[in-house]
Amino acid sequence: AQRIKALGMGLVVDFHYSDSWADPGQQNKPAAWQGLSFSQLRDAVYNHTFDVLNSLEAQGTTADIAQIGNEINAGMLWPDGSTNNWNNLAQLLTAGATAAKDVAGSTRVMLHLAEGGNNSQHRWWFDNAVARGVPFDIIGVSHYIYGHGSLASLQNNLNDLATRYGRPVAVMETAYGFTLAQDDSTPNIFNSALQQAGGYPASPAGQAAALRDVFEVVAAVPNGRGLGVFYWEPTWTAVTGAGWDPTDPNSGNGWENQALFDYNSRALPAISVFSEF
């Protein structure tokens, strides 16, 4: 955070509220929270969020954006915060959002869903959040061209969300492969089938073109409500100790061919896209 602020950049803190990856298919409570009652769980969300953000604020690196949950299409902190119980989920989200604002009013609260082209689901989700008074400042989506729908569907969804809810929107995750070759023994997520689905060649130029087109979509959101694009994960190269499992130094990386650095750790052309917008 100190290095980020020293370079004049903004700081986004993405709370997963889990001991492992949190995404639409898994939103598991951290072990320390397993036995809590719902009221205790709600307090834990507030206290953890406040503690992290207050520690950052105290060292002069106040978070610019706090993301309350990661890809929470089906809720978070299952089963208590599942979308099967929206009243509970709304309370958990509100606890995290309130903690962020209690630390610093300048910190903007983001709610983040996957499947950036899924307008009907996103409308349903945010209608439920708004109806229950969940406070938020920004809508974030993940959009991987090879799995989350066309760029046209992304454009339609972002335009509609920005207009319907009156908030800025951002693509918080996107990526594309620059090669089909592997750099370690773990099979890569991005393969020839996903290259075909994505429609761009698995090459440095193809990766840059895919990213540029996502930027173009966000830039075209009406009334300047397209906030920007984040790449995930640009530095996740296949080096020892950077595998899927942080507790296992021998675990492999299935993402290295979607990084923004090649297998010689040299920056790829897609990095330059960030300076074009």
Written account of the structure:
This protein has helices at residues 2-6, 38-58, 86-103, 119-131, 151-165, 192-198, 204-219; strands at 12-15, 65-68, 108-113, 138-142, 169-173, 226-229. The protein is of the alpha/beta class and 277 residues long. It has a 6-stranded parallel sheet with strand order 1-2-3-4-5-6. Helix 2 runs parallel beside helix 3 (86-103) and helix 5 (151-165) runs parallel beside helix 7 (204-219). The chain is globular, with a radius of gyration of 19 Å. The two termini are 24 Å apart.
- Main pleated sheet: 6 strands, parallel
Question: Within the largest sheet, what's the order of strands?
Answer: 1-2-3-4-5-6
Order of helices and strands: HEHEHEHEHEHHE
Beta fraction of the residues? 5-15%
Shape designation: globular
| Helix run count | 7
Distance between termini? 24 Å
Radius of gyration: 19 Å
SS-based class? alpha/beta
- Number of strand elements: 6
Helix fraction by DSSP (H/I, runs of at least 4): 25-40%
Overall mean pLDDT:
97
Low-pLDDT ranges: none
Record keyword descriptors for this entry.
6 strands; alpha/beta; 10% strand; globular; 277 residues; single chain
List the helices and strands and how they pair.
Elements: H1 2-6, E1 12-15, H2 38-58, E2 65-68, H3 86-103, E3 108-113, H4 119-131, E4 138-142, H5 151-165, E5 169-173, H6 192-198, H7 204-219, E6 226-229
Parallel strand pairs: 1-2, 2-3, 3-4, 4-5, 5-6
Helix pairs in contact: 2-3, 4-5, 5-7
In short:
With 277 residues, the protein is α/β, with parallel strands linked by helices. Helix content is 34%, strand content 10%.
